[in-house]
Structure formats: C-alpha cells, structure tokens
Amino acid sequence: LEQIPEIFRLSAPQALSLSQEFGTPLYVMDQLSVIHRCRAYKAAAKQYFPEFELSYASKANSACGLLTLVHSEGFHIDCASEGEIRAALRSGVRAEHCRFHGNGKSRLDLEFALKQGIGQIIVDSLDELALLRELRESIGETRIVLRLAPGIEPGTHAHISTGQQDTKFGFGIEPGFAIEATRIALENKLPLIGFHFHMGSQLMSSSITAQAASVMAEFAVEAKNKLGFCAELLNFGGGLGARYTDSDTVTSIFEHCRLLSASALPILRSGGLKPRIALEPGRSLVAEAGVTLYRVMAVKTIAIGTGTKRYVTVDGGMSDNVRPALYGAKYTVKNLTRGGHEHTVTVCGRHCETDELFPNVELPSETAVGDILEVLTTGAYGASMASNYNRFLRPAMVAISGSGDHTLWQRRESWEELFSREVAP
Ligand code: LLP
C-alpha cells in the first residue's frame, strides 16, 4: 500500500470485447484500483493521524456504483450540490455520512440537506452563516465547519486553484475574516466543530498543502487562544494529483499524509489541540483507475507549409472529456487494435470546433478507421463533466471487478433521455 500503484490499463482482448458489447466511447473503471487507493489512504491516515476521517470528493466521478464502492471502503461522501447529495443517498450512503460543500448554497439546498440529516455543512460565507442561523431549528445533528482560505498560491492550473488569497472560496485567514466568522458562528450558537481548506487540484507535490496545513493549525490555536474554541476537526481537503503522461510524477498517498502530519501536528500539540484530521481526495482515488475507449472514425493527413500533420478523429470529444479544452490537459493514448512503428498524430474529437482532444501523441502509423484507442487516467472529471454538446449521447460506464467480470454502472444515454426535457413540439 505504501508504493505508488500501477496506472490501470485494459488488456487488448478485454477492451475489444467491452467496446463491442457496450459501444464507444466507453468509460471503464477498475474496482481493484479504486479499492487499493482507498486502502492506501486508510493505512496512511491511520499511521500519521491519531484520529481521522476520510471523504471521497464525488465531483471527480459520481457514478452511483462508484459511490457505493468507495463508501463500502469506509469513505464519507463529499457533495458539492443537492444533486451530488442525491447521488450519494441513491448509492446507499446515509446523509450523516455526507459532507455538503459549495460557495453558493441556496436556502432550498440547505433546507434539503438539513432535512436529510446531512453530517456536516462546510460553510463558505457570512451569508451562508446567516441562512444557517435562520434555519437553526432544523440543524439537528448536523455539524458546521468553516472553509478557510490559507492565502498560499497552490501552483496548479488557474481554473483549479482555490486556496490562494484571491479566491471566491472560504474565509481569508488574513486579515482576520476567518477569526471573525468563527466568532459569529460561536455567538450564534451554531454547532461549529472545526475548519476546512482545499488548496487546489492536480497538485503533483504535497508541499503546498502541507504549508497550508501548518497555517491552518496555527489558526486553530489562535481560535483557541482568542475565542476559547477547541477545534475537534481540521479538514485538509483533496488535491493530490494523478499521472496522465510518462513525464508526470506524483507524491505517494503515504508521503502526502506524512507531510501533512509533520507540518500540522506539532503545532496543534503544542497549542493543546487534538483534532481529528479529515482528507477529501477525489482525483487521487479514481483518476488512474479509469480509461476511456474510443473508435477511430477517420484518419486525415493535411499539408502545413512544406510538412504534413495527421489527424485521427475518434467517436467522442470534448463532450466526454472537456479537460483538454478547459485546462490544456494531456493524456496517454494507446492503439489496442494494432502495434507497429509509431508517429506523432493529433487525436481529435468530432465536435464542431477545434476539439483537439489529444494533440501530439504517438500512435502506430497504420492506425486506421475502426481501431480501438484507449486513453489512460480518465477516471476523474471525465464522466462527471460530460455534456450533450452537439446532441451527442453521454457514454456508458462499465466497472471491472477483481475477477475480471464487468458490471454496467451507467448505461449509455438514450435518444428519449436526450429529448426528455423538451417542452415545445
Ligand atoms: N474538496 C473540495 C472542497 C474540492 O473543491 C475538490 C475539488 C476536492 C476536495 C477534490 O479535489 P481532487 O482531490 O479531486 O483534486 N474539474 C477539474 C478539477 C476541479 C476540482 C474541484 N474541486 C479537473 O478536471 O481538473
């Protein structure tokens, strides 16, 4: 468990048979890979934190089969919307095991969550605190956590950076917003239990998260000294990255926990605090456990100046994986139908815009229509960010078990579903 596990890949025969049975594009998740990573988090947390709580950030992939699996491994479910709470409930997760995040929760969202008996609400603004004060009667066993902004640049893509000073998320520790929010929560007798931060996503090293953990530990001690509030929970968020290409290296789950513990625990101990440490990984549990299969639809060589460029069009695109378009994300692509001498091509999607899914990847020069391509590390933020752009149907998701059997987790969308919201003739 201490080692960094293998990135999941299908065998060519299995991929070809799945693509025939379920069609393409097809998301495939390996359950053993997910279980392995869940257990690595549990073992590492057990080793480095006296008490801990683990949640899965379901925005990474909220297929109900996956939520059930991760929950059966002892993870709570972090939900960022009523929809994600509903997905968790459908998956057999009790509301008390769900945590509710978000910087724009409506009164209706909060009423829904409280009615279900949500375990924790991670509060993001004074307006949300005011709403909760109004809803105090229905708070019941729900506990309140304040999201803080540690004010440190996480050094990842700007779209997925959240813990820096200029952020819409949380209460800035500087210049005193966080302590003020703590005071207001206590004054209003809201059941505050602690603090949360999430620095950003796809962080290949844990040093920034560890730095933020020490800033939060110092803040928790400050809250004890100034307000007499003893935090019983500190949540260090998610963010640990995944390997998308050969050049990516990532901190192991064990090292991640060791670094967080080493930077926060001594401060907490000397400040007389012994909070439970919470983590809420998304990507690092599921990204490398998933692949996407596509079928080649066309291969075209174009002339550029005196040279040429080859486009390989597949039967998916930015509607099943928006990450290249949104973040310039890179991936590893394999041809499972044939091998042979490779050359550089651009794999593009079939949407009516540039839709360069995987630019400059190496594929066999004989790659041809009908070949099955496998794209690695697509288990996170693929299906969960999928759309119906150009009225394409969202792909199915299949789960492989340890014995090699497969289960359908999500059907491919149907034409009826695609038009089910239309009210005009
Ligand atoms: N906790 C909170 C409060 C979060 O906002 C997130 C992710 C996580 C945990 C989990 O982060 P992870 O461990 O997955 O890095 N769509 C983007 C990623 C957005 C992440 C948003 N928040 C992408 O495809 O790269």
Judged by helices, strands and strand pairing, the structural class is alpha/beta
Q: What's the helix-strand series?
A: HEHEHEHEHEHEEHEHEHEHEEHEEEEEEH
Whole-Å distance between the termini? 57 Å
Give me the number of helical elements.
Answer: 12
Q: Helix amount, in percent? A: 25-40%
Short descriptors:
425 residues, alpha/beta, 9-stranded mixed beta sheet, 8-stranded parallel β-barrel, 12 helices, 30% helix, binds ligand LLP
Question: Can you put this structure into words, describing what you see?
Answer:
With 425 residues, the chain is α/β, with parallel strands linked by helices. The chain has twelve helices and 18 strands. It has helices at 12-22, 31-48, 64-72, 82-90, 107-116, 126-134, 177-187, 207-227, 253-270, 283-286, 323-327, 415-418, and strands at 26-30, 52-57, 76-79, 98-100, 120-123, 143-149, 171-172, 192-196, 233-235, 276-279, 290-304, 307-314, 333-335, 342-348, 356-364, 372-375, 396-400, 406-410. Strands 1, 11, 12, 13, 14, 15, 16, 17 and 18 form a nine-stranded mixed beta sheet that branches. Helix 2 (31-48) packs parallel to helix 9 (253-270) and helix 8 (207-227) packs parallel to helix 9. The longest helix has 21 residues, at 207-227. The radius of gyration is 23 Å and the shape is globular. The termini are far apart. The protein binds ligand LLP.
